[in-house]
Amino acid sequence: MRAKARSATSASAATSCTGGAQPTTDSPPAAVHDLGAGSEPPVRVHGLVKRFGRFRALDHLDLEVEAGSVHGFLGPNGAGKSTTIRVLLGLYRPDDGIVSVLGREPWRGAAGFDLDPSKRVRTYSKGNRQKVALVAALAAPTRLLVLDEPTSGLDPLMERVFTEEIARAAGEGRTVLLSSHILAEVQRLCSAVTIVKDGRVVEHGDLGTLRRLSRTRIEVGAPADALGAIWKALETMDLDVVEDNGHLSLEVPAEQVPAVLSLAGEHQVQEVTCEPASLEDLFLRHYEEA
Q: Are 5 and 284 in contact (CB under 8 A)?
């Protein structure tokens, strides 16, 4: 299952990248903007469409980021994350849809905003100077941070500093949109997540919702005769089971967890590991099924 899902993810990314060349900009899209006051959500996107020639990079994408949240924006390379960020920064104009950043259309109002480069706008790319700029940007007193793959190329020390600064920003009530393909990073930092594939949203919600939509990972260790009986019973439940060195491992939908644990109890299995599946499992499953 995992190998198949990864293959599907790679294929999706390749499809998204081959439809046509995307225009380049003078700076990477990762940035910090403070674009003005507004009572609506800091980021509100509905039905966003962006084309490059015949290639549709964004296909009626919806995204809403609540004030004071750290919102993860997930997808592999080519899923449409960077294109969305560029639209939010006013670097691209949409072909269709509604886009509001701190109450304004970014491509219409950007020229009129008082954007002090030392306080309100920061870009990030690989390199020591950009790493320092990233930390400075996170420390700046802005209401909204729009970050595109911000930890790419960072060493472990800088990753720790980044995590600490994001936590500090969230504690101050600032809003963060964190685009990433590193699920452990998002799971550690974010309170809500939107997952995109081929320019469309395939799932969104808080982390608790996504984990419930995901599966529970269960591992059972027992003598060979007991494992054989358990395996046969699990097959009748239409569950995929993997055997490795006297252990059975499987991913179980939430509603079937009690039945699997009861089955292990019936066979007096003493070695059972049960833990929530990671966001990675959810992510890969969506790309396998979609």
A: yes
Q: Cβ atoms within 10 A of the Cβ of 164, count? A: 12
The H or E element spanning position 137 is helix 128-139
- For residues 45-81, one letter each, b for 16 or more C-beta atoms within 10 angstroms of the residue's C-beta and e for the rest, the string is beebebbeeebbbbbebebbbebbbbbbbbbbebbbb
Element (H, E) at 193: strand 192-197
Task: Assign residue 60 a region (left: φ > 0; alpha: ψ between -120 and 50; beta: otherwise).
Answer: left
pTM (predicted TM-score) = 0.69
- The first and second tokens of residue 204, run together, are 């969104």
Averaged pLDDT, groups of 10, the chain, 290 residues long: 36 35 36 46 95 96 94 90 90 94 78 36 43 63 82 80 85 88 82 92 86 83 87 89 88 90 88 83 71
Which residues on neighbouring strands pair with residue 251, listed in sequence order?
217
Question: What would the two tokens of residue 173 be?
Answer: 């009530």
